[in-house]
Structures are given as structure tokens and as C-alpha cells.
């Protein structure tokens, strides 16, 4: 096989289990996004003019997209849960979002840059 075939054949999706102490030590499986999912997430979080990322939307939707049930591997929340999640403890949400950002190669500098543009 050539390098192209090797890369395309790999299952490169990553997961990480995190413990959320604010939720009584419940475990959440955090998954990485595909390139298409990440791009869709960014588009979803653009402001109405389509010129700037809404930081609150990016934060909450990253949580929604990446938080999975550790037993089933399935996404726990949907976009319909946005307001309910936004009302949860920020420290608990941060545990999941931080892991998601690490798995998806999103650093603080990139978030700041997305919000500026």
C-alpha cells in the first residue's frame, strides 16, 4: 500500500473518558470530530452576517457534538438542549469542552482567532 491508502484505511477518530465531579463523578465519553463535522460546527456558530464566530454557540455546540454516553458511544445531547446546557455549571461543561478541544486540535489561540474573524 502507498501512504495514501495507509492513511485512508486508518481509524483515526479518538475518544477520551472524563469524570465530571460537578455531576457526582459521572463519566462522559468525549469524541473527536471528523473534518466535515468540525467545519459544519464552525458554520453553525457563525453570526447572522456570517462574518464572525459566536463564542457562546461554539462553546455549547462543541459540548453537544462531542459529549457521548460511555456505554453506548452515542451523542448524549442535541441542539434542542442548547439553553439547558448553557444553564449548567460552567466548570462541568469546561471539563468536556477542554477534552474535546484537545482531541480536535483546537487551542486557545485558534478559538480567539475564530472569534475575531
Could you characterize the architecture of this molecule?
This protein is mainly alpha-helical and 117 residues long. The protein has a single domain (13-116), classed as rbstp2171 (2-Layer Sandwich), CATH 3.30.2220. The protein is 49% helix and 12% strand. It has six helices and three strands. The protein has a three-stranded antiparallel sheet. A hairpin with a 5-residue loop joins β1 (15-20) and β2. α3 crosses α5. The longest helix is centred in the C-terminal third of the chain and has 14 residues, at 90-103. The relative contact order is 0.18.
Features of this protein?
117 residues, mainly alpha, rbstp2171, three-stranded antiparallel sheet, globular
> Tally the helices: what do you get?
6
Distance between the termini: 41 Å
Overall number of structural domains: 1
Principal-axes shape call? globular
Supply the CATH superfamily name: Phage tail assembly chaperone gp13-like
Can you tell me the CATH class? Alpha Beta
CATH fold-level topology: rbstp2171
Please give the CATH architecture.
Answer: 2-Layer Sandwich
One letter per element, helices H and strands E, the order comes to HEEHHEHHH
Please tally the β strands and state the result. Answer: 3
Q: Unreliable stretches, pLDDT < 50, 5 or more residues?
A: none
Cα gyration radius (Å): 15 Å
Helix fraction, binned, reads 40-55%
Largest sheet: 3 strands, antiparallel
Beta-strand residue percentage: 5-15%
Amino acid at each position: 500500500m502507498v501512504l495514501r491508502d495507509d492513511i485512508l484505511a486508518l481509524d483515526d477518530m479518538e475518544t477520551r473518558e472524563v469524570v465530571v465531579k460537578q455531576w457526582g463523578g459521572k463519566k462522559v465519553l468525549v469524541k473527536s470530530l471528523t473534518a466535515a463535522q468540525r467545519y459544519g460546527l464552525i458554520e453553525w456558530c457563525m453570526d447572522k452576517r456570517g462574518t464572525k464566530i459566536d463564542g457562546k454557540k461554539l462553546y455549547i455546540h462543541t459540548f453537544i457534538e462531542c459529549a457521548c454516553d460511555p456505554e453506548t458511544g452515542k451523542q448524549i445531547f442535541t441542539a434542542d438542549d442548547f439553553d439547558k446546557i448553557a444553564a449548567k455549571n460552567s466548570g462541568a461543561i469546561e471539563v468536556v469542552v477542554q477534552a474535546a478541544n484537545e482531541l480536535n486540535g483546537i487551542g486557545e489561540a485558534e478559538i480567539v482567532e475564530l472569534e475575531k474573524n
